[in-house]
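Field reference: sequence -> structure
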Amino acid sequence: MNYTPDTVEYMKKRYIEEPTRETVDDLAEELDKSVKSIIGKLSREGVYKRTIYKTKTGETPVTKLEIVGNIVEKLGGVEADFLGLEKAPKQVLKKLEELL
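Structure field:
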């Protein structure tokens, strides 16, 4: 057994109080475990929250395919009719989506 019940409770308490990557790093160093091991255990215990990636502008990233799908939906078309549109620059696709 890698973790005692007391250790697991301690980890959960610390992480719930401050759910940051720094807390995970501190726990890994303190308990002499790898970061992956700590994250894995917290995940299995149902308390770990994955960090959501944000773009430089602070937005949630959206793929060009998702933007094209939104455009097709707004136009009432079929994606097969718009093949190649995903190759356009992302800013152009965003502007087109906004205009619709």
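Note: Residues 64-99 form one domain.
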